[in-house]
Amino acid sequence: MRKVTLLVTALIMTSFLYAQIDVDATKTYLVTKKNGKPFFWMGDTAWELFHRLTREEVIYYLNSRQKQQFNVIMAVALAELDGLRQPNMYGDVPFKDLETLEWAITPGSNPNDAEEYDYWDHVDFVIQEAAKREMYIGLLPTWGDKVAYNWGAGPMVFNNNPEAAYTYARKLAERYKHQWNIVWILGGDRPGTYERDGRYHDDRPVWRAMANAIEEVYENDVFITYHPSWPETTAFFPNENWLDMHALQSSHGNRTIKAWEIIREGLKIESRRPMMDLEPCYEDHPVNVWDGRWTRAERGYFDDYDVRARTYRGVFAGGCGAVYGHHQVWQFVDTTRNDPVWIGDTIIGWQRALTAKAANHIHHLKDLMLSRPDFNRVEDNSLVVSDRGSDYRDVIIATRNRKATYAMVYLPQPKPVEIDLNRLSNGRKRVSWFNPVTGKYTRAKGKFSSGIQIFTPPNQQQKDWVLVVDVK
Fold first, then answer.
1. Residue 173: CB partners within 8 Å, gap ≥ 6?
2. I need a surface site. Which of 27, 107, 284, 462 has the fewest CB within 10 A?
3. What global pTM score does this model have?
4. Cα–Cα distances in Å, from 296 out to 83, 109, 284, 306, 359?
């Protein structure tokens, strides 16, 4: 009996070695490895989660995001905001010193004993609590300022040092290889190559060393992506064996960026992979705050509509998931502990920010995309016969499944739209309006089967709508 128990345990432990998320056969979207069902990445950027919260606060945060139906929490092991030198909430740092990068590990892990509970014990706790809630941790081994000549507190402990990067990443992967809810994210808001002070820098050997270390530990069966700054990963890593998903960061510099066009083009490259925006505009982030000329009146903040307008169109253009962020949540703003980063002129604190408008309704996008049994979608703007718009304020994006048995059209403005129903399969058409704020449907009046039809959003007070057409 004991041998059977040991065998079962070994099999369970071995199964945890392998990636839980995979890429579908068309290399367009994500699936769960266990049963091949579509997986829609609904992420939240909690970059400072390991660094700035207590155990009790971690539970409060995770409970909130679980209720809001997020399934990937993105956090950084070596945090951006002076994460190597400023201790976490228990007075611990990740390394004993920054020369050898020896891990600061103590015997035991009792959180009630400060001599036992170290930095990495706290990281363990966060990951395990996420697993209890069936949430993935999108784990960044390090923020990019530990690698790249650009900006940030650093220090650049991995700069031009692939060997140190490999050793660190391998130890991190070995620590968590049995943890089912890890997906790996390299990059940390940095390009792979760039120029600074007239010099060309190529950090790709460092990132490749980390990827190789992780792949070796997982026997090449692991999900890895890369979080860039600008431009998208296709510019730096167009065809890397270790990279499972391409990504971009449309970021917080302006409202005009057309993230959907970047995704569209990214899906055209020969070494195709699923693609998504890993950091769109954050709710309540001041727009283009870095030049010192920001004012509330002239630039203001990204609001819930800005978040939806960018995210929905990115997904409809082929994005395999969506990421939400709140500017006061990622850094866990608490002015009694730390100065806020680029906050503009409004401080609400991270607990209150957890219930910001878009945080409570962005999951409707995930629900919508998973509501149809056929997840194999393509962008098809030929469905729209009327003017599709010209820029970020009004451009309409349409998607349908390859069998053409359903279609979805995102309208950033509540104006009538002409749809060519002949582009879909033959049959009676059920037409509904989906409200991205409430997640509720309103049936369009009339009977439809073919031809060009005009549909008008049911409420002009709600700015954006999704027209949904199902072939019956």
1. 184, 213, 214, 217, 218, 222
2. 107
3. 0.95
4. 31, 47, 11, 16, 22
Phi, psi of 275 (to 5 degrees): -145, 150
Q: Extract the tokens encoding 98.
A: 């920054």
2-370 and 377-471 share one fold: no
3-state secondary structure of 13: helix
Residue of 62, 8, 30, 50 lying closest to 322 (CA atoms) = 30
| CB of 71 closer than 8 Å to CB of 20 | no
Please give the DSSP secondary-structure letter assigned to residue 465. E
Question: Using one digit for the tens of pLDDT, what is the confidence trace for 405-456?
Answer: 999 999 999 999 999 999 999 999 999 999 999 999 999 999 999 999 999 9
The confidence score (pLDDT) of residue 237 equals 96
Cβ contact 283:254 at 8 Å: no
Residue 463 pLDDT more than 60? yes
What is the rounded end-to-end Cα distance, in angstroms, of the chain? Answer: 55
* Helices and strands of the chain, counted as H and E runs: 11, 21
* Phi-psi label, residue 27: left if phi above 0, alpha if psi -120 to 50, beta otherwise: left
CA dist., res. 101 & res. 119, Å (int) = 14
Other C-beta atoms closer than 10 Å to the C-beta of 373 total 10
pLDDT digits (tens, 9 = 90+) for 203-225: 999 999 999 999 999 999 999 99
Calpha distance 194→6 (Å, rounded): 51
CATH architecture, range 377-471: Sandwich (2.60)
User: Which CATH code fits 2-370?
Assistant: 3.20.20.80
Question: Pairing between strand 429-434 and 30-32?
Answer: unpaired
* Burial (CB count within 10 angstroms: exposed 0-12, middle 13-18, buried 19+), residue 130: buried
Give the 3-state secondary structure of residue 176.
helix
- Cis peptide preceding 228, ω within 30 of 0: no
Phi, psi at 217, each rounded to 5°? -65, -40
H/E element holding 23?
strand 21-23
Tell me the C-alpha distance between 458 and 396, whole Å. 17
| Amino acid (one-letter) located at 399 | T
Query: Length of the chain, please?
Result: 472
Share of the chain above pLDDT 70, in %: 96
Provide the token pair at 250.
């449309």
Q: Give the residue extent of every domain in the chain.
A: 2-370, 377-471
